[in-house]
Amino acid sequence: MDTSNLSRRRFLELVGAAGGSTAIYQTSRAMGLLQDTGPVAKLDLQGVGAAGKKIAVLGAGIAGLTVAYELERAGYEVTVLEASHRIGGRNMTLRHGDLIDEMGHNRVCNFDDDPDLYFNPGPARIPGHHKRILHYCKKLGIELQVKANFARHAYTHESGHFGGNPVRKSEYFADAQGFMSELLYKAVDKNRFDEPLSVEDRERMLLFAKRIGDLQPDGTYHGTARAGYESGGFIKPGTHKKTMDFSALLQSRHWESAFDNIHNPEWAEPLMEAVGGMDNISRGLARNVKSPILTNAQVQSIQNTETGVDVVYNHNGERKKLSADWCFNSIPTQFMVGIPNNFPKDYNEGFARVRPDNFFKIGLQMKERFWEREGIYGGITHTDQKINQIWYPSHGIHKQKGVVLSAYTFGAEQSAFFERMSPEDRIRYAGACGDKIHAGYSSYIEAGVSVPWGRMNHMMGCGVIWTPEAIEKYYKRMRAPEGRHYMIGDQISYHPTWQEGAFASAEYALLDFDKHVRAETAVSRKG
After folding, report:
1. What is the C-alpha to C-alpha distance for residues 446 and 513, in angstroms, rounded to an integer?
2. Domain locations in the chain?
3. Is 8-34+159-252 assigned to CATH 3.40.50.1820?
4. How far lies 225's CA from each of 178, 232, 241, 525, in Å?
5. What is the DSSP letter of 44?
6. How far is Cα of residue 74 from the mean position of the Cα atoms in its chain?
7. Which end of the chain, N or C, is less packed with Cβ atoms under 10 Å?
8. pLDDT tens across 90-122, in order?
9. Tens of pLDDT along 211-223?
């Protein structure tokens, strides 16, 4: 690398590559680069009063259940309509006997009937700065546990690199940091910067490079215990593993995404998950909602009236109408395009301009926790195969069996590859991919489930994609009420696919609704 013209900006980029996730996370927050979800608003909603007000909530996902919970506490009469056979939306956990409602492939989860054997095909991680979801978990007594997102003993695997063999992340990152730090050390030592460093800055930066990369006193890198020992290290002296070839590290593609996986603030350790399955969050909300939650209730028409909203729906084969004073609607925007309504043209255009995103996951029940024999306890293995990732469970350590997330694809193109397969072929394919990383991987498979969100009934997607043009033209329009109708859900947020986006959307709509109610109350009192 030519270090003759190394600017301060470039130096900081290299430090970012070599540094740890905690340093990057804290620095990003301090510099205002990390988007904070903001404080949780105090939802001191005005009471409904003696006359009473009826609320229609369309969709029993996180946003809909939150609205129902808060408005019921304020005294409103709430009815929740859910098209699916279950509540939760994409907040979903699969256990023994659960229905997987995929179009054309309805089936039942065949995991053992064991509370530790479950799979989260939807949201599976809660970052520490997602304050709203943590607020409700605490308020509703939903128990959380730490989820290991990064494990140094997990692997990176690339078919065309390192002989096609899996490499421990501890080795990969230790050597990558070591070699990069050696380059930094040499650049600092020769003071090759646009603006020369002071003597004090130079000394501190040399020390920084040594510590980050575990360099030798002369600033060179010859391996480190951070990569793990080849042998010894406890009773006998430890022998460092042989360093990887720096050229091979650069030619591999893992680093293109690896540092994002470590430093992305949404995945910054520690992360959390709900004990026993993420659907305990939606269940916790539903347990605290006394109002009726009607499943198998498909909305067929939404009409604004002068005084409220009329919703026509089909409930278990019977056509019904719900007349409400206000409506909070979390139906996916791709379905709203086809639901008859009397909304204005620009509002309906927004539904069509927000494109559905797509994800796909596979969960496999393994008869033995073989990964623990390899020293892996939680975390993720990354591979360039079409399965993308393997997640190891953070719970149930040292039990006989466990459920491994064995494929996680992002976007329509990646997900379509698996959607075209039968459920049985998906499991066989994931097993064959796993065999290239763990010896005998497929032989441990006892049962499996796959969830292609683009083919799931009443979903046909997972989150949305807001283009910059759509945000500029339609976001504020769709976030605001149309008459007495609000659109809600993670789809109406800058954080689609995350539960925090759903909570934030519900919060915004409730606060705006409360302003309208208070204004109407003030007018009626004057009259």
Report:
1. 50
2. 8-34+159-252, 54-88+281-353+464-526, 99-153+270-277+358-455
3. no
4. 11, 11, 8, 74
5. -
6. 31
7. C
8. 999 999 999 999 999 999 999 999 999 999 999
9. 778 888 888 988 8
Q: How far apart are CA 154 and CA 166, in angstroms?
A: 9
Between CA 443 and CA 333, with CA 455 as vertex, the angle to 5 degrees is: 140
Residue/partner pairs of 176-180 with CB below 8 Å, 24 or more apart: 176/17, 176/18, 176/249, 176/255, 177/18, 177/212, 177/213, 177/214, 177/226, 178/213, 178/214, 178/215, 178/221, 178/223, 178/224, 178/243, 179/213, 179/221, 179/246, 179/249, 180/14, 180/17, 180/18, 180/213
Tens of pLDDT, residues 267-280: 777 899 999 999 99
320, β-bridge pairs: 313
Number of alpha carbons in the 13 Å side-chain half-sphere of residue 495 = 22
List all residues 6 or more positions away from 118 whose beta carbon is below 8 Å from its beta carbon: 93, 94, 95, 111, 276, 277, 403
Pick the more confident residue, 2 or 290: 290
Strands 144-147 and 380-383: unpaired
| Lookup: tokens for 466 | 């807001």
> How far is residue 229's CA from residue 216's CA, in Å, rounded to a whole number?
17
Cα angle 425, 431, 435; round to 5: 145
CA dist list (Å): 158 to 161, 252, 383, 392: 5, 7, 6, 19
Judged by DSSP in three states, 158 sits in coil
Q: What are the phi and psi torsion angles at 174 (to 5°)?
A: -60, -45
141: left (phi over 0), alpha (psi -120 to 50) or beta: left
Residue range 99-153+270-277+358-455, CATH number: 3.90.660.10
CATH code, 54-88+281-353+464-526 = 3.50.50.60
User: Residue holding tokens 């204004």?
Assistant: 519
Average pLDDT value for the chain: 88
